[in-house]
Specification:
The chain is an all-beta fold and about 110 residues long. About 0% of the residues lie in helices and about 45% in strands. The protein has no helices and nine strands. It is globular and about 35 Å long.
Length: about 110
């Protein structure tokens, strides 16, 4: 989907998300985890852990596995690539990624 056709939802202020942490937002009817890595790199993935059905991925630990930026689920410790949504241990449990942007001090997410 082209960026011009996306419907952006305002989620929070940039400073509401500390570096290397995440927050959960309801975007439309979807629970989305929004992560900030470093000073200004942003990612958004589905927040629901596919193995448990709990909305918890935003509470996971953010880190790196090799050159991949990941979040570890707080429940089953599966690692999700923040760029692609791939679950590294069980690819069948991968999650969707969503466009995210920081603009004028605000974080916005689009869900297709």
């Amino acid at each position: 989907m082209t960026e011009a056709l996306l419907h952006w939802t305002d989620v929070c202020a940039v400073e509401d998300i500390l570096p290397n942490t995440g927050v959960c937002a309801l975007v439309g009817s979807r629970h989305v985890a929004v992560f900030r890595t470093g000073a200004d790199r942003w990612f958004a993935i589905d927040n629901v852990d596919p193995k448990s059905g709990a909305s918890v991925l935003s509470r996971g630990l953010v880190g790196n596995l090799g050159d991949r930026v990941v979040v570890a689920s707080p429940l089953y410790k599966n690692h999700f690539d923040l760029q692609t949504g791939e679950c590294l241990e069980q690819p069948e449990h991968s999650v969707r990624t969503h466009p995210v942007q920081a603009e004028q001090g605000r974080i916005r997410v689009a869900v297709a």
